[in-house]
Specification:
With 311 residues, this protein is α+β, with helices and mostly antiparallel strands. It is built from four helices and 19 strands. The strands form four sheets. Strands 2-10-9-4-5-6 form a six-stranded mixed beta sheet, with no helix packed on it. The radius of gyration is 36 Å and the shape is elongated.
Length: 311
């Protein structure tokens, strides 16, 4: 306090020098790292970390620090590889390890793996600051929090969230498609969810692959059957049949490289409109059922009341 006596100030100064001497011997030195403010430019934040001096040491000493500007919310799909990139600098004699948060299992330490699950490994090129945790063939059970740790005192850690999703293809429209013979057919398959390469889409009629009609292309004619795939806001593939034939009927499947497939059942009919055919069949069946029900009802009445019918 400003009202303290001179003797008290001298005692405070003496305590300060005692603490400074203790720190210079490393007995009270501690170090923690906090993320830089979001408004601080990355270059300024990193430079501030590099010039951090050791507490209680008269000379500047570089301390380990994390790069907080790497992606830490990672999404992958079932069956694909997940990469969790941890970047550390100024490690000196410290080491980096990866831990799975849900069971506190140490997965890697340095470049060594400490799990029997061979899908896990660390990628660390020589003379690199990157310590990447690789999870091959990701499964839903792999989702959760993983920590990149440095064995300082106290320990430094940086959390990463891994999301594992299932991609599923979707064919636009109803699952049943009725078309007339010689008419045009378009089937569109979409795959919109995915964190990275979506691969491509293959079409099958039953178990037979469907490709663009190469014979039509070579003769410079519009192909009767063609497949067009594009990567715009996701993966989209269109199967086009210019003039449908009865043989084109069947189950069509669009199968993505990654993800679940989708199917559609196509009926190519000759003659009457399929909707009218369906309504006609339902009307005929309904009429036949009505006749049978009335006959059965009359028979029951006759048997239960023979007097009414003169028996």
């Amino acid at each position: 306090m400003c009202t303290a006596t001179g003797g008290f100030l001298q005692l405070s100064a003496l305590c300060f020098w005692i603490i400074a001497i203790a720190n210079s011997q490393g007995k009270l030195a501690t170090y923690t790292q906090t993320p830089p403010p979001s408004s601080t430019p990355p270059s300024v934040a990193r430079q501030a970390d590099r010039t951090s001096s050791a507490p209680g040491n008269g000379t500047d000493q570089l301390y380990p620090f994390f790069d907080y500007y790497v992606p830490r919310n990672i999404t992958t799909t079932i069956g694909q590889s997940a990469f969790l990139h941890c970047r550390t600098e100024n490690l000196n004699d410290k080491s980096v390890s990866w831990m799975r948060k849900r069971d506190l299992h140490i997965l890697t330490a340095g470049v060594l793996t400490y799990t029997s699950d061979q899908r896990f490994q660390v990628i660390h090129p020589d003379n690199s600051d990157n310590w990447t945790l690789l999870i091959k063939f990701a499964q839903p059970r792999d989702a959760g929090i993983y920590e990149c740790q440095v064995n300082t005192e106290p320990k430094m850690s940086l959390a990463f969230q891994l999301n594992v999703v299932e991609m599923r293809a979707r064919i636009c429209g109803p699952p049943e498609l009725y078309v007339k013979e010689d008419s045009e057919v378009n089937m569109r398959c979409e795959l919109s969810q995915g964190p990275h390469d979506l691969g491509t889409i293959f079409w099958y009629l039953g178990n037979v692959p469907v490709y663009t009609d190469q014979a039509s292309l070579q003769s410079i004619r519009q192909p009767r059957v063609s497949v067009h795939t594009e990567w715009v806001d996701g993966l989209k593939s269109t199967l086009h049949i210019a003039r449908a034939k009865l043989a084109d009927s069947g189950n069509y499947t669009c199968m993505p490289t990654f993800g679940q497939s989708a199917t559609i059942n196509v009926h190519v009919v000759n003659g009457e409109h399929p909707a009218a055919m369906q309504h006609g069949n339902r009307s005929a069946v309904s009429g036949q059922m009505t006749v049978h029900v009335l006959a059965l009802f009359s028979l029951v009445i006759m048997l239960s009341n023979p007097v009414l019918f003169g028996h």
